[in-house]
Design a protein that fits this description.
seven-stranded mixed beta sheet; 539 residues; 17 strands; alpha/beta; single chain; four-stranded antiparallel beta sheet; FAD/NAD(P)-binding domain
Length: 539
């Protein structure tokens, strides 16, 4: 016999990092909060799990960049076990020999590397770096804003809009930089500065990560900025987490449990009931009922609207928009247990020239020698097939973290693209082994013999990411980071302020502004709006 409803002030659906952050801020404000997670563990896409006996890997997300220092501080995450470890400067081979480019936070070192290929590009890089940092500083501030609905004609919207404009009044002419990046392709944007395709590929690479786009796709310039907004050590703000990315969500879970949050795992939400346009009971697949003043969903907006709430309870325009929200994933992840990390052709030269500073091995690599390589990888996906020569980010956390593998052994994470969710004229059940061979063939081109060092491997393509992590079509950002799916149009126009058409029902995940990445900012912003509606302030 099912027991009566469990009453809370707030219920958060989904125990990914944004859900945990949202729950934590609500609890800090004095609310009694429950988190409902369908998997046996919390974490969403930030989890560490065993891939072979004695080997643990960051299964989905693999490096920390965007988790904001404010959130780390507010929840005292280091006290709960969070330790950030720096990774090496990024290194990218430019051919089949020992040529390479090293990309560093140190401008002079990056210039020295660029100068091997173009004196012009080396000379202009400091100006470009300053230009990009100014644009990034603007966007970093916008991350914390609640998007307005420009179609509304009421006093509150006018007041909030005027306040936002006043806050950013000093930006002036710099705003055009953001507009340019939203409209331009990565190639066109970079070509205004640089002349060498190998140099441009170092930055254009970021435009392809996790998106179904190439460096020559309009709007792809913005994605570069999205990936380098981190404020931690390493080129572009990247760093490892001791114990893998799951240590982020484990530390968050520990912190919010200390604040009184109840976390329920193995708890799949089957339905969100509504009545009179307001949120009602949250019902699980095993019949448990949770009731709260506010419900926040960290699940994807499409799943929330179409599966948990249902079309009949929603305005037709919202249903139309959410069905058109683009989520076609094309990223893959391969987690490898191995005897030793890849022995790149460039390794001896990189060590000899001291390009890695204190590191003896490049823990963070990009494999995409030039712009055309990146564009060809996208061409395959554009026409419905996986890339025969994918771009790949190999990272080796075990160089700095000895908790993930047995002594002397290593874990290698390969992330890249493109591998579209559906294949035109093919079936992933047949093609997955062939694509795995294409990935390893690409690694072998730059690190001969790596196959022989593999002990075990796990290949995740978009259908796997969808099945395990609950991301529709396996899109790692919960949807394309394109101009029509950003800020006041994410996930739908009219409901981008973390609220939904159902009163007291909110979205706190990457489906809303500012989008994907392990930042915690959507969770923070959603909690702020929930508390505002409840007459409280975020602490």
């Amino acid at each position: 016999m099912t027991s009566g409803p469990r009453d809370y002030d707030a219920v958060v659906i989904g125990g990914g990092h944004n859900g945990l952050v949202c729950a934590g801020y609500l609890a800090r404000a004095g609310l009694r909060v429950a988190v409902l997670e369908r998997r046996p563990i919390v974490g969403g896409a930030a989890v560490t799990e065993e891939i072979a006996p004695g080997f643990r890997a960051s299964i989905f997300s693999y490096l920390m960049s965007l988790l904001h220092p404010r959130i780390i501080s507010d929840f005292a995450l280091p006290r709960h076990g969070l330790t950030v470890l720096p990774c090496s400067d990024m290194v990218s081979p430019v051919d089949d020999g020992d040529g390479y480019i090293a990309f560093s936070d140190d401008i002079a070192r990056t210039q020295e590397s660029f100068a091997r290929f173009s004196a012009h590009d080396a000379a202009i890089y400091p100006a470009f770096d300053a230009y990009l940092k100014e644009a990034t500083a603007i966007v970093r501030r916008l991350l914390w804003e609640t998007p307005l609905d420009p179609s509304r004609r009421d006093w509150r919207t006018f007041r909030d809009g005027a306040s936002l404009l006043w806050k950013y009044r000093k930006i002036g002419g710099k705003l055009y930089r953001i507009v340019d990046m939203l409209a331009m392709s990565a190639y066109d944007f970079l070509h205004e500065w640089f002349e060498d395709d190998r140099v441009m590929a170092v930055l254009a690479y970021y435009a392809s990560i996790g998106t179904l786009a190439g460096p020559k796709s309009p709007g792809s310039a913005y994605v570069i900025m999205h990936h380098i907004m981190g404020e931690h050590e390493g080129a572009g703000g990247w760093g490892f987490i001791k114990g893998g990315m799951g240590a982020i969500t484990a530390s968050l879970a520990s912190a919010i449990t200390e604040l009184g949050v109840d976390i329920f795992t193995d708890t799949t939400v089957a339905e969100i009931r509504t009545s009179g346009g307001r949120v009602g009971d949250v019902v699980t697949s095993d019949g448990r009922v949770f009731r709260a003043k506010a419900v926040a969903s960290n699940a994807h907006a499409r799943h929330l609207y179409l599966d948990l709430v249902g079309e009949s309870a929603l305005p037709g325009e919202v249903v139309r928009q959410i069905k058109g929200y683009r989520t076609m994933g094309a990223a893959f992840k391969m987690n490898i247990a191995c005897e030793r990390p890849p022995q790149y052709r460039i390794l001896d030269r990189v060590r000899r020239e001291g390009a890695l500073g204190a590191f003896s091995y490049p823990t963070y690599m990009h494999i995409a020698p030039d712009i055309d390589y990146l564009e060809r990888a996208f061409d395959a996906a554009k026409y419905g097939w996986y890339s025969p020569q994918p771009f790949i980010t190999p990272v080796v956390p075990t160089i700095v973290d000895d908790t993930l593998a047995p002594p002397g052994k290593h874990v290698v994470n390969l992330f890249g693209g493109h591998a579209p969710y559906t294949l035109k004229g093919g079936d992933w059940a047949v093609e997955k082994p062939n694509f795995e061979n294409a990935v390893l063939d690409t690694i072998e081109r730059f690190a001969p013999g790596f196959r022989n060092d593999i002990i075990a491997s796990q290949l995740l393509i978009p259908p796997d990411i969808e099945r395990i992590a609950g991301l529709p079509q396996g899109h790692i950002f919960h949807g394309e980071l394109s101009p029509d799916q950003l800020f006041f149009q994410r996930p739908t126009a009219g409901y981008a302020d973390y609220r939904t058409p159902i009163k007291q029902l909110y979205i706190c995940g990457a489906s809303v502004h500012p989008g994907g990445g392990v930042s915690g900012i959507p969770g923070h912003n959603a909690a702020r709006e929930i508390l505002k509606d409840l007459g409280k302030r975020i602490g």
